[in-house]
Amino acid sequence: MRKNFEFNKQKSIVRSHLQLIKAVSQLIADAGIGGSRFQHSLAIINNFANGDKQMKNVNFPAEVKDLTKRIRTVLMATAQMKEHEKDPEMLVDLQYSLANSYASTPELRRTWLESMAKIHARNGDLSEAAMCYIHIAALIAEYLKRKGLFSMGWPAFLSITPNIKEEGAMKEDSGMQDTPYNENILVEQLELCVEYLWKSERYELIAEVNKPIIAVFEKQRDFKRLSDLYYDIHRSYLKVAEVVNSEKRLFGRYYRVAFYGQGFFEEEEGKEYIYKEPKLTGLSEISQRLMKLYADKFGIDNVKIIQDSNKVNPKDLDPKYAYIQVTYVTPFFEEKEAEDRKTDFEMHHNINRFVFETPFTLSGKKHGGVEEQCKRRTILTTSHLFPYVKKRIQVISQTSTELNPIEVAIDEMSKKVSELNQLCTMEEVDMIRLQLKLQGSVSVKVNAGPMAYARAFLEETNAKRYPDNQVKLLKEIFRQFAEACGHALDVNERLIKEDQFEYQGEMKSHYKDMLSELSAVMNEQVRSSIFVLVALNEGG
Question: Are 512 and 525 within 8 A, CB to CB?
């Protein structure tokens, strides 16, 4: 180590670092080292470094300490992997910590990222497998760039995922020359990325991942492979055009999972994660999976699932049990960002904020009439963006806001307007969803739906109880709602076949009743310009 330090002009021991970490990894695999004697040997190495008087005033002892610390990390993670081999989230987390400990050793970091990809693929988490392979490609590209062998490094992958900046942490030294990478290996890796992007239905990323391959083929003047590559990119865009807003692609569902019970979860206690589950995984499904997983670890009588989304006070919990709180969450976007994210893919790519809502009333009950129904909106932020090399990401911050009853009405009605407008402006209108939304919007019900909000907050005697600006805002939203319903009816009428003419007539009748009722409640004439135009055309 000392000779390597002197050879590197007293800057680092990277070559020794790489060789030792490689050797330890191989020994772990072959002989299962890591006992007390090995730990004692690491302590002796540290003592020698600290006791070397000639190296007292340079950073040699710190370099040695860093190396032995990394070796211990590898040993601990390997032991824990055996303990958690049936827990896919924990297993991937441990392998991720190992991959990070090898930031200075591209070949070993690649090994653990590949191992993570295989676990993801086995469990059907194909987007995560694709991300592991993309991180490996960025790692190889960065290595080649630093060696002067390729023009693109890790920043070339930033447009795919900002998480990729992790691959810029590679240490630079002569020890890197032990890694046998070249452009052809990069191309093979990128082709594997493309394969998993097809499998995970993230077609929008295929052209971007192919850009470094294009650079290689252009440099090699391999026009045949360039032609084939551009055809594949052409196919990927055709696929995007086919499915872009069809909602046929199922990018997964998200759940907030929190762990309580120091005696069971140890360092995981009190931590919250967002879990990304495949396809249409329901709340009961993930709850049962986690229940079984932790019941096998701690005993079935010692594990309890909390499905209430209220904030948990650990002091109120019985220390005899391991508690797991599971809450369904959805991606959250500020208004401007939501306008920019127009497709299903954009709503599920590079996201790190999630929201869930908890209903409550001031009387203490969970649910009440619309005039007493409040809700708490909680926004969670994760440390990295989904999709990532891991399928669960830790929550690093959260904010909560409480909405009073009229604010709940404003929020719910705004959502209805937005949903109706979105359904009407789709290239291929989803008739089933449109008709379901229409039915729930225009049928006048006394104690439920939009009219319940109108009566509770906009009737003259009731409106006086609420701030004037909020009443005005809700009135404006109801005008937009009437317009959106009229537009939806018009779209539906243009697309239905003869067997639904009677149904359309009923919907129109309900809509007229709703407009009449709304006009009486708001004390003004409420109408839809589209519906009026259609009525005039029919009359003329």
Answer: no
List Cβ neighbours of 227 (8 Å cut-off, separation of 6 or more).
none
CA distances from 220 to 210, 300, 380, 395, 409 (A): 15, 61, 47, 45, 63
CA distance 319 to 306: 15
Site of tokens 């971007």? 208
Q: Write down all domains in the chain, each with its CATH number in brackets.
A: 120-243 (1.25.40.410), 253-403 (no CATH), 408-539 (1.20.58.740)
Residue 29 has pLDDT above 60, yes or no: no
Check: CB of residue 247 under 8 Å from CB of residue 201: no
Kindly report whether the peptide bond that precedes residue 387 is cis, defined as omega within 30 degrees of 0: yes
pLDDT band (50, 70, 90) for residue 427: confident
43 CB burial (10 A radius; 0-12, 13-18, 19+)? exposed
Helix (H, G, I), strand (E, B) or coil at 163: helix
Tokens of 361: 């009333």
Q: Write down the pLDDT at residue 175.
A: 47
Q: How does pLDDT run across 188-209, given as a tens digit for each residue?
A: 999 999 999 999 999 999 999 9
Give Cα 224 to chain centroid, integer Å. Answer: 38
- Give the count of beta carbons closer than 10 Å to the beta carbon of residue 438: 22
